[in-house]
Amino acid sequence: MENDTIIHNQGLTKPEKDDYSTNNCAVTNALKIMGGKWKMLLIKIIADDCVSRFGELKRKMDDIAQTTLTIQLRELERDGIICRKAYAESPPRVEYKLTEIGITLLPVIQVLTDWNDNYCRLTK
Amino acid sequence: MENDTIIHNQGLTKPEKDDYSTNNCAVTNALKIMGGKWKMLLIKIIADDCVSRFGELKRKMDDIAQTTLTIQLRELERDGIICRKAYAESPPRVEYKLTEIGITLLPVIQVLTDWNDNYCRLTK
DNA sequence: ATACTTAGTATGGAAAACGATACCATTATT
DNA sequence: AATAATGGTATCGTTTTCCATACTAAGTAT
Q1: Tens of pLDDT along A65-105?
Q2: If contacts are CB pairs under 8 Å, which of residues 70-99 in chain B contact chain A?
């Protein structure tokens, strides 16, 4: 019973001191940028598409409100994860794609997807 | 402009059809279990501790409300991520630890931590 | 007797997230 | 002249999430 308390911690980086407060925890920090109901899904779709238009995203996430989609895109843009390119046409055309920093988030998406495919069913 | 649309998608598993709706997306599914403001942090702390007591968790996450902590722990328990062991003592003693399935979530935590350490600063 | 400890629960309220609806400008189409 | 398409914004309401406060039971220490 005592010996298995060591096993599952291998490979996890322990914090120097026990500081998990809001401003100092790596997990919390990362989630400030990519947390929430829609962000990771949005990042995944834009990655799959390479370049996405607004209406395309709206169609694929068919249960998101348009206002919510706009807000999420603005925040991802503000945080340097995606970039927005608007063309001076009519009707308007706007394209979204991942920035270089946004691309560095793909391993997070992938490991989450892998976990779902391999282990999530065991939780039921 | 066209050629760089391919690069960043390497290694990402594309969905068969463009189905990102609420019930069918792997990312969304995984986040149903470990999403939210506190879950991943909780999983990380319990992993660091190997075994955590309630008051210990409360102290380390000093800005979480006690009621919220209880709810998060109950949900993680319900979803098979942690297990709860209460001792018939007084004052009560309750211990939380990761289940085997909970342990499979650690790579998710790790990759999130790594991203924060390596790339998050670039978003500023 | 009183105070302290742990791991909660109960209640009420505030804040954040999210959604539905209506509206807009510009151009092309019918 | 009316309609449709795109990518929004503005407003308001709901739902979800979260927090603050008060309270509890049982044993231990003073």
Answers
A1: 999 999 999 999 999 999 999 999 999 999 999 999 999 99
A2: 79-81, 97-98
Distance of alpha carbon B60 from alpha carbon A106, whole angstroms:
30
Q: What fold does the segment set A36-123 form as a domain?
A: Arc Repressor Mutant, subunit A (1.10.10)
Work out the minimum CA distance from A24 to partner chain B, whole angstroms.
Answer: 11
Query: What whole-number distance in Å separates Cα of residue A81 and Cα of residue A58?
Result: 19
Residues in chain A with CB shorter than 8 Å from the CB of B107 are 111, 115
Contacts of A9 in chain B (CB under 8 A): 47-48, 50
The domain defined by B37-123 folds into Arc Repressor Mutant, subunit A (1.10.10)
For B91-120, what is each residue's pLDDT tens digit? 999 999 999 999 999 999 999 999 999 999
Task: Provide CB contacts within 8 A for B8, sequence distance 6+.
Answer: A47, A50, A98, A103, A106
